[in-house]
């Protein structure tokens, strides 16, 4: 098998479900030993992308290569190369943690003493050894996630796929899962593809991030690269009477590097130095008769990048405790 | 070798799940036991008359009464293939237990869909046909064991069961279970809700049981029912099981243990291939 520097190559991938376009022509590639995160809100098409890469869905258009194998034509070979932790649980609750591991191992062709030893080693790694013979139905959410991570590592996959690895977990459990992911990266140099809708998670763990929304990749790069799209400081101004002349209003603030009108009478200005720009902004507003209702400035984080790219906020992060994602009402 | 591992993994899983849910084990035996005790003992004495009422005008001579009793007894024995009704029905219920159990075991596929374990088996590199086969065999072993329990319990109710032939009878039951488990699995791969599957089960299983000769012989059925019974695989496993367990040959002229075996084998192979095909094509969109 040829040694490839790109372990996963996705080209012009499209997936349609009946009348919904879930993934709309995305392309990216993941290098060996890289941690790559797809960041975006629920419904962005992240999980669909993951399912196609994991051979569980067939693409409508485009091609996906995993470790050099085509996910449609060589699904069996792809399946051997990947370990996956799904967003929704995929454990057998009525069996013990050990049995879940054991069945997985046998499905992947492991057996005997070697399998037993590997199971115990991995259960030890995720600190579940003492619960090995308890039924999974008595496990907490965090324990289940850890068991799933251990299970996905059992057959020593080349690529680990984590779909929202910390969704629905409490902060402590999240921190623990993060530690494991960092450990895997450091100790085993694993190639990891993960999806998340937590900005802090993507920033903390990923080497490269692709921001996804409505089936498209809007931007891709390291966290620093993405943030530098916005320069130094971002000023947000809410005015009470933003009429439709977007160009007019941006012409007023011609000193800004980027000027963009966002949803809800909001204006985004990217400036070199906010402390100096603020008095200027007030001055201009007064001259032009604009009434400023609210003003704030931030150093750009991924949240500001997302806001810049989509005009909407990516609400979920650890700081802003999210509403459970299932019940979250989509904007507009 | 790899495939064999996947096969045993799934078989192990189905057996372990069953063993872990021991309360369910009791329930699956309880239901047929209720049929056996109440229907068997309730009807059983009707078919072996104790008191013959005197007919006006005919002198109540003891000899005549006992002759009539023997005649009635023989009549029913002939209908039930030479054994009492209890033995007749119990040997049918043994098959019914396996039939119901195997058909319903398909529901575990729907559970797996809802609890996510199906994804784990779909993403595994093992051949899908082997994965589903392991599952079907595991479930069939479970239902065959349940039948064995029923046979053992029947010892309390009748002494007409031939225990030496139990392994032979269980062989037929196992083959039939493979077929109906495959059918149940194939159906539930197409359903995503328990309710839908339950409805189909209720719609199919009860009529099939009544048109198979479990509770009454196929030979005394109305013609249209006979016609359906001939196309019902359950009829053949009931006939064969009764043949071995009660030495009672109750069925259509062409039926004997060999034709039973041939028909059941063909049915089972077709069903297994069908289940494999459906599972092979399963994606998350179903």
What's a quick, concise take on this entry?
The complex is a heterodimer of chains A (332) and B (286). Chain A is of the alpha/beta class and 332 residues long.
CATH superfamily of the largest domain in chain A: P-loop containing nucleotide triphosphate hydrolases
Order of helices and strands of chain A: EEEHEEHEHHHEHEHEEHEHEEHEH
Overall tally of structural domains of chain B: 1
- Rg of chain A, Å, rounded: 23 Å
Query: Within the largest sheet of chain A, what's the order of strands?
Result: 6-7-8-3-9-10
Q: Output the number of helix runs of chain B.
A: 12
Largest sheet of chain A: 6 strands, mixed
The overall average pLDDT of chain A, rounded, is 84
CATH architecture of the largest domain in chain A: 3-Layer(aba) Sandwich
Largest sheet of chain B: none
Multimerization state:
heterodimer
Rough outline of chain A: elongated
Relative strand content of chain A: 25-35%
Beta strand count of chain B: 0
- Inertia-based shape of chain B: elongated
